[in-house]
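Task card 7
Instruction: Convert sequence to structure tokens.
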Amino acid sequence: MSHADTQFDNVSVVKQANVYHDGKVTSRVVKFADGSHKTLGIMLPGEYTFGTDAAELMEITAGDLEVQLPGSDQWQRIQGGQSFEVPANASFNLKIHSLVDYCCSYFK
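Output:
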């Protein structure tokens, strides 16, 4: 794994955590010099629904989950090292089977 795959350099981090689903999902915003941002977070086991404003790329660094993407009735298994994309202005469902560590990138 390269340095670029394991850390972000020259960024700012927002101290205040984003807390969802009674604290079972948390994240922190990482801001880049170009004005873009990502979130880094943890999801504890459970079932969750999220909505998007912008399109998202969810990179799963560790853990085991299933995702039901917008417009689908199928569940896809995702594990650490895999990722999935969600379109803008959509809702998606997650079943978290073991603690999930993730990085979410946003696109306009």
